[in-house]
Amino acid sequence: MRHPILFLMIAATGCLDRELDDEPEVQTRSESAAIAGVCAQTRTAIGPVLTTGEVSAARSGTNLYVGWTGTTSLPGSIVKLDPQYRVTARWTMGATGPNLTGVLDLGSHVLAAYGTSSTGIVDMWQLSPDLSIANYAATYAGNPARNPFLSNPTGSARAYLWSSQKTLIASHMDPSGFAANGSMFDRTGTITELAGDNGGHDSAVVWVENLGGGVSRCSAGNIGFDVPSAPSLRTTRVVSTDCRRARIAAGPTDDIQVVVTASASGVVRAHFRRSGADMVHVLSASGRAAKVRFDGTRFWIAWRDTGVGALRIASIDPIGTLVYSPISGPVVVGDEAFDLVRTSTTTTALVALTPNSLDIVTLCR
After folding, report:
1. Which of 175, 97, 176 is nearest to 141 (CA)?
2. CB 41 within 8 A of CB 359
3. Helix or strand (DSSP H, E) at 88
4. What is the pLDDT of residues 236-288, one digit of tens each?
5. Residue 362 half-sphere exposure, CB side, CA atoms within 13 Å?
6. Can you give 22-46 as a three-state secondary structure string?
7. Of 212, 209, 265, which Cα lies nearest the Cα of 240?
């Protein structure tokens, strides 16, 4: 079934898939141990930042691009960091939207998705690799995903992930990064938030639906690129009820994933999925804003505990064993002021926006 929808510069068309409505039976695994977790930390002075600042990072070979939001008086910026995490280039964005949902290195240029998520507006910026030139590229209307840039492993097929009302949309991206057409998938409830990640074959997505009456539900699935211009949503499943702030990390195979969520009361959970079996770890009884990333061997998780300034860190191995780190992460300025980014085929870094600096924490296995 094809349904054309026009939202400013994006048109999403495609097919309707079948939704799974039953929440899976969940196993809870209690094994945990403590390891160091942090093996290096770099701090770069960047000047004062917003207390509500948001950050997003993307790998570029052995370098990193890191962007953050700002105002006229406390401007947002994008920096390029070398392998030692030293700033080699910087573009001052100035006043941006309050949200930064993703940064992407396309080789020929860099994309940054600034905007206002509450009104469903994203301003896409295009920057040169050395950050000497920045141009406004497009405005997209619709609820943007966190980590919205999906692709197959080679980057030959890409999609921009977003939603509108009860519809999840994966818009096809051309080589320049322009998003249009693609596929759309109808859900049961209004999609209030969503997030993506790229895996070894498919991409992974998670979304939160408002089912009415104060009831929420998180579901996850894979986005495939068998037809590059029409991404497909497959193997969908219910992850949890009473959930929000959901993020997902794709594992070494399409059937291994971790979804992190928070309940209305602040219980932070990690939902480990392997070969159709679910395992749930309670990370915190009172926390929020968890992020997750797979480094090739382990899933790394960072989150904020209520009343605790420093970030908490843990990891999960590919069979589901949870490992807590006794070493805390940096103190960040806000719930979206930290990101986890894979910096090599075996390493993940925690990128954190602190009141006056950008902290890069290399996570150990």
Report:
1. 97
2. yes
3. strand 87-94
4. 999 999 999 999 999 998 889 999 999 999 999 999 999 878 899 999 999 99
5. 13
6. CCCCEEECCCEEECCCEEEEEEEEC
7. 209
